[in-house]
Design brief:
This protein is 39% helix and 23% strand. By secondary structure, the protein is an alpha+beta fold. Strand 7 and strand 8 form a beta hairpin.
Amino acid sequence: MSSPDITAILENSRELDRIRKDQEEVLVEINKMHKKLQATPEVVEKPGDTSLARLKHLYTQAKDLSESEVTFYSALLSQLDALLPSGPPGQQRKRTVADGNEQKRKRMKTDSDISRLSPSMRSQLEPCGNLKGEQVAARVTGDNSEKDEWFVVKVIHFHKDTKEFEVLDEEPGDEEEGSGQRKYHLPMSRIIPFPKRNEPSSVPVFPPGRQVLAVYPGTTALYKATVVSLQRKRKTDDYLLEFDDDEEDGKMPQRTVPFHRVVALPEGHRQ
């Protein structure tokens, strides 16, 4: 192993340490914001309040740091793979004999790797694993599509190694090819969990005028809409929304959508 190779590995390791320290700091700030909004959710309705903008900025930081962390982990693995000796011929035979246990070791490694991830990475991955069987909002179109298409889908499995969701579109539209249910493999960035139906007090409240993404009544598709008001009832809360491009007889009808079918509008949404 040459000195330049060792130097490169150490430099990447130091950068990885710096990223993880930054992740810890961002996570602390995110937790502070969560506690603030849980204690006083009405603060976001005050003129000039920047709580949601601050939280969005922190989420963006956490996402960027997590992606950087994965990049440096991959670089270190590649450097080590290139430097580790393949072993003498006698060792190759032993490795072949042990191949029967390889799949078991891989499964064990995947689980243990998750426990060794930084707190910010775990905070993102662990909730994803708990979404199995739940309905979520999913963008099924790629980044190169002219517009974003979001549908209600059911989570079948979350693959921790690839950080991808396997989801099922249980009610595909009539215009889609084929008549059966459709499966997709989607990255975390294209999935938005819905608020818990039985926990209305724990979800963010969208004030009037806020743009959101919501399920259009009678369908499983989500579209951009503007909040008119939040109607509080004894057993549930409903939003009164005006959907974009939903004009009827020259007017914008106001439609009622349950709170658990309304999520924040993704940044850069195309419709």
